[in-house]
Amino acid sequence: SFSLKRALEGNSPKHLSFSRCPALWPQVFQSLLNGGVRDATELVSLNLSGINHVLYSECRSVEDQLVTVTLSQLAEVCSNIKHLNLMHTHYHHEHTLGLDGETHLCTSLGRFKQLRSLTLPACALSDGVNTNHISSCSSATSPLFQGLKKAPRVGLQNYRPDSESSLSGDSTSGLSSLVAGCPFLETLEVIGPGFVSALPRLEPCTRASVEPRGMCAWAREVGDAHLAALEALPHLRRLSLAGLPGVLRGTGLVQLARRCTDLRVLSLANLGSLKTMNYSPALLETLKQCTQLQELRSDYSYSVLFPLKKVVYFLFLKCLEPVKTIKC
Is residue 19 domain-resident? Predict the structure, then answer.
C-alpha cells in the first residue's frame, strides 16, 4: 500500500488497472481523490474489476459494495475517464421512501461525461428487489430444502415457477440517469454474477473466482425493460449481455436495435433461464434491424443449439453482408 502511494505521487497516470486487488482499491481512491497524483484529469482508463472484498453474497456486507458517493467524487476529480471496468463488483440499491433516499449508482456513473466504454455488473442496473421474491428465494434455500436441491448447471439459472412474475422489474429510473449522462457511450457490457464463459474472453471467468449463480437477487431483476432503456444511446456500437436470467422475451433487444442503428458488435450469453427460452423470435427480429452488424457472438453453455442454428441460418439466408464474424 505504501509503495503504491509512492508510485502514484507526483505522477499523472493515464491508465490504471487493479483487477482482483481488493486490498489496494481503498488506497487507489484515496490517492485519486485527495491529491495523491499530480493531475487526475489525465486518467483515461480505470479497471476496478473484482475489487470487492467478499466474493459470496451471503457473507457480503454493505462495506463490500460500490459506494455511490465515492464514484461521484471520482467522476468530478477524474473528469476525462473514457473507459471504466466494474466487472465482478456488486451494488444493491434499496427502495427508500422520502427525500433522503440513496443516490443510485447509475446516477453517479452518469457524471462521467466523457465515458466511451463501460462494464457493469447486472445488479448495478436494478432499482431494487421485489421483497416477495426475496422471501420465496430465502425459503427455497433454507436447510430444510438443501437435500432436495439439484446442483446448478454451469452458466444456467434454474427455473422457478414464479420467475415470470418476479423477474424483470420494469423500474429503470437508475439506468435512465446513466444513459442521459453518458450519451456518447459506444461500448457497454452488462455481466451477471457467476457467469462462466464457454468461449475465451479478454478476462476469463473461472468458477473459483466468482460466486455461484442465482446468489444475487438484484441481478435477476434486470430484464427486457432495461434493455429497451438502452435505446437512448445513439452512438452504441458494441453491446455485450451475459448471464441475465430476467430477459425472458427479448422485446427490449428489438426496441434497442431499432434505435441504435450503428450497432457493430453484439454478444449474447445465457439470457433467460431454463424453460423460459422464448426470445428466439425477438432475436431474429433484432438481427433484421442490425443492418451495420459486423460480429455476432452467441455464447451458451447449455443446450440451445437448435435456436442458434436457426439464427445462423437466417444470417446466411438473408445474406447480411456486414456480418463478418459469427461465433456460437
Answer: yes
Structural domain range at position 181: 2-93+104-141+160-327
Q: Cβ(214)–Cβ(149) under 8 Å?
A: no
Q: Starting at the earlier edge strand, list the strands of the sheet with 295-299.
A: 15-17, 45-47, 83-85, 117-121, 187-191, 238-244, 265-271, 295-299, 325-327
E-strand spans in 192-253?
A: 238-244
CA distance linking residue 176 with residue 183, whole number of Å: 11
Assigned domain for 151 exists: no
Global confidence as pTM: 0.78
Residue 58 included in any domain: yes
Is there a domain that residue 146 lies in? no
Q: How many CB atoms lie within 10 A of CB 6?
A: 11
CB–CB of 76/110 below 8 Å?
Answer: no
Whether 286 and 253 have beta carbons less than 8 Å apart is answered as yes
CATH number at residue 33: 3.80.10.10
Q: Which residue has the cell 488497472?
A: 17
Tell me how many domains the chain contains: 1
Taking only the tens of pLDDT, the chain with its 328 residues reads 567 778 888 789 999 988 777 777 778 888 888 888 889 999 999 998 887 654 444 444 445 678 888 899 999 999 999 999 998 888 888 765 444 556 889 999 999 999 999 999 999 998 876 654 444 444 444 443 344 344 444 444 443 434 443 344 467 888 999 999 999 999 999 998 767 655 544 444 443 344 444 457 888 889 999 999 999 999 999 999 998 888 888 899 999 999 999 999 999 888 877 665 667 788 888 888 988 999 888 776 544 444 555 555 555 455 455 556 656 5
Residues in the chain: 328
Residues in contact with 142: Cβ distance below 8 Å, sequence separation at least 6, in sequence order: none
